[in-house]
């Protein structure tokens, strides 16, 4: 195993605060339904939770937060819901980017943006440019993202490099592949949170979640607040990350 990876794992195993948190924000529709509101109102309420969690991450000194905003499968929803989600996306971006920038947050988007309205693509690009030099929290928004898409794109890029004679087949290893994926350059998520009671990955960061600690809560995303986030952090702090080793080995290297 590469020395660098080993070092990263040893460090990750000893941290009680995650460096990178990845969240599937689920349950907006059910939150609205339980109040006899249209699903869209749940998404709107969900934006408030995003604000709260971003703030919580900043205050606690977490380095990166990746939020699943729209999956590559969410296009299957009724057209009207997809349209409303896109509108909300645009309005939220317009409203929030300035404040995020003031708060030293670096904003990035992952996913296939070519499917979005050109106006929205432009806004995404502008938000990234405006906040590129910020040094605080890195906020990654996964939009039209799918873990399989991410892996296919990476594979394609490497195949093209091989075909062009720029890459040897034997030089393809997991580090190389990881470097081609979205979120390359960020530490892999230490903690994964899914709200809404469902216990599945739903084609989120498939490769990147290989050794992530998983946390599921029945709370619906609009009800997820700073206290709920802290509970997830506390659960994380109690875990022993072994990366294949025995518990005793991990304990020993922690004491060393
Ligand atoms: C998550 O909430 C938000 C998106 C997928 C955009 P849902 O809309 O999936 O809410 P439920 O699962 O139907 O309650
Ligand atoms: C996952 O939630 C995607 C986002 C939160 C953006 P879904 O609600 O779409 O997931 P499934 O369909 O229940 O697995
Ligand atoms: Mg859902």
**Global structural class:** alpha/beta
Task: Please provide the count of β strands.
Answer: 6
Shape: globular
Helix content: 40-55%
H-E string = HEHHEHEHEHHEEHH
What's the story with the biggest beta sheet?
6 strands, parallel
What is the architecture at the second tier of CATH? 3-Layer(aba) Sandwich
Span from first to last CA? 21 Å
Characterization of this structure:
- This protein has 256 residues and is of the alpha/beta class.
- It has a single domain, classed as Decaprenyl diphosphate synthase-like (Undecaprenyl pyrophosphate synthetase, 3-Layer(aba) Sandwich).
- It is built from nine helices and six strands, in the order αβααβαβαβααββαα.
- The chain has a six-stranded parallel beta sheet with strand order 3-4-2-1-5-6, with helices on both faces.
- α4 (79-102) runs parallel beside α5.
- The longest helix is centred in the middle third of the chain and has 24 residues, at 79-102.
- It is globular and about 55 Å long.
- 31% of the residues are buried.
- The mean pLDDT is 96.
Would you spell out the secondary-structure blueprint of this structure?
Layout (H helix, E strand, L loop, with lengths): L2 H12 L5 E5 L3 H6 L5 H22 L3 E8 L7 H24 L3 E5 L7 H14 L6 E8 L1 H17 L10 H7 L10 E4 L18 E4 L9 H12 L9 H9 L1
Parallel strand pairs: 1-2, 1-5, 2-4, 3-4, 5-6
The chain binds 3-methylbut-3-enyl trihydrogen diphosphate (2 copies) and magnesium ion (MG).
Main traits of this protein?
binds magnesium ion, alpha/beta, Undecaprenyl pyrophosphate synthetase, globular, binds 3-methylbut-3-enyl trihydrogen diphosphate, six-stranded parallel sheet
């Amino acid at each position: 195993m590469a020395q660098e990876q080993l070092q990263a794992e040893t460090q990750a195993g000893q941290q009680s605060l995650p460096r990178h948190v990845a969240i599937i924000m689920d349950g907006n529709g059910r939150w609205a339904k339980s109040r006899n509101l249209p699903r869209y109102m749940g998404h709107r309420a969900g934006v408030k939770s995003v604000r709260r969690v971003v703030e919580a991450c900043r205050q606690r000194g977490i380095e990166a937060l990746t939020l699943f905003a729209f999956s590559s499968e969410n296009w299957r929803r009724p057209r009207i819901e997809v349209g409303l989600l896109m509108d909300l996306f645009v309005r939220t971006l317009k409203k929030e980017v300035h404040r995020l920038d003031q708060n030293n947050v670096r904003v990035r988007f992952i996913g296939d943006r070519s499917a979005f309205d050109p106006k929205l693509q432009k806004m995404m690009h502008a938000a990234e440019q405006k906040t590129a030099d910020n040094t605080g929290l890195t906020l990654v928004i996964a939009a039209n993202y799918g873990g399989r898409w991410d892996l296919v794109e990476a594979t394609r890029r490497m195949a093209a490099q091989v075909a062009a004679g720029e890459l040897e087949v034997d030089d393809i290893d997991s580090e190389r592949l990881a470097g081609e994926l979205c979120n390359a350059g960020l530490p892999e998520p230490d903690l994964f949170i899914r709200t809404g009671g469902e216990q599945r990955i739903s084609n989120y960061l498939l490769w990147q979640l290989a050794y992530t600690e998983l946390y599921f809560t029945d709370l619906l995303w609009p009800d997820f607040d700073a206290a709920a986030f802290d509970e997830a952090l506390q659960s994380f702090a109690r875990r022993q990350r072994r990366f294949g080793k025995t518990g005793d080995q991990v304990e020993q290297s922690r004491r060393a």
